[in-house]
Amino acid sequence: MKVLDKVAGDLVEMSNLGLVRQREAARRFFVKVSVTRPYVLTDGERKKRIPPKQAAALFALMCKPLVSVADLSEIFWPNPDAMPDTWVSAAKQHIHHLRRALLEFGVDVENVYGRGWRLPTLPNR
Fold first, then answer.
1. What is the pLDDT of residue 80?
2. pTM, to two decimals
């Protein structure tokens, strides 16, 4: 899990740049996630803990416009020898659980059929 902590830390640094550029959008996006263990989603009133792999997937979604299954495999299993035979379904399962957690806060991760997932875009004002 130390690898996931490093990946999450690197992704948070990159996502902070994106959030600065989208300051108005960030104000309207009320869900926050802690960047240290335990990883917690919060909207100020409710809190929900998420596992490290779901947090890493969320950080990837914050950094990239589109995250594919291949992207997730590189994040979850940086050593290809450690990758399980069922890595595709395992990666999809982590996204499924992350989506359910985010839905509790009103954020729906969009599925781009055959390509991956992305966070919803907010309309320009």
1. 85
2. 0.71
